[in-house]
Amino acid sequence: xxxxxxxxxxxxxxxxxxxxxxxxxxxxxxxxxxxxxxxxxxxxxxxxxxxxxxxxxxxxxxxxxxxxxxxxxxxxxxxxxxxxxxx
Length: 87
Description:
Elements: H1 14-26, H2 51-67, H3 70-73, H4 77-83
């Protein structure tokens, strides 16, 4: 695994989801939330996710959507700017 910390992520609510989005940004692993992590061609990061990482990203992705709507959370301007690559 390139990202062993993925195993510890649990998304139970919007705060967890927003923290996870920040983690994705910090690790250059953002993707369109309507897509499956299994369908992503990871090209924007130095450390490419392994198949095990992708399995964890998929698990967390399901939890993310189970906890709410990540697109609604991105209405937070600061989080949106981070997600879009700004500051």
